[in-house]
Amino acid sequence: KYNSFQFLAIVSGVVCGVLGYTDLKGVAAFLAFNCVIGAAVALKCKFSVNTYFISWDKILVDGASSGLGTFILCWTLFYNICHLF
């Protein structure tokens, strides 16, 4: 589970950086990507989330908090590469 959220953080950070998203657009895109991967994890669990997780919010909150630093790193790196240099 955590590997998929880390990979999502890298991909969404690269996408937001290349597209030139700044401020709230980038954060909104990160949250949207996390909702998509959370839905994919729930689908993989066949929506019996309580069997695998404590509650529904653990899918989104734990995933978003673990990937936030990676997202910001990739977002700023690729924004600088594509739009500043």
Question: Explain this structure to me?
Answer:
By secondary structure, the protein is mostly helical. The longest helix is centred in the last third of the chain and has 28 residues, at 57-84. α1 (2-19) runs antiparallel to α2 (24-44) and α1 (2-19) packs parallel to α4 (57-84). It is built from 4 helices and no strands. The protein is elongated and about 50 Å long.
Secondary structure elements and their pairing?
Layout: H1 2-19, H2 24-44, H3 49-52, H4 57-84
Helix pairs in contact: 1-2, 1-4, 2-4
Key traits:
single chain; 85 residues; mainly alpha; 4 helices
The overall average pLDDT, rounded, is 87
Distance between the termini: 35 Å
Helical content class:
over 70%
User: What structural class do helix, strand and pairing data support?
Assistant: mainly alpha
Choose one word for the global shape: elongated
The DSSP helix count reads 4
Summarize the biggest pleated sheet.
Answer: none
Q: Tell me what portion of residues adopts beta-strand conformation.
A: under 5%
Overall number of strands: 0
Order of secondary-structure elements = HHHH
Alpha-carbon Rg, integer: 14 Å
Uncertain ranges: none
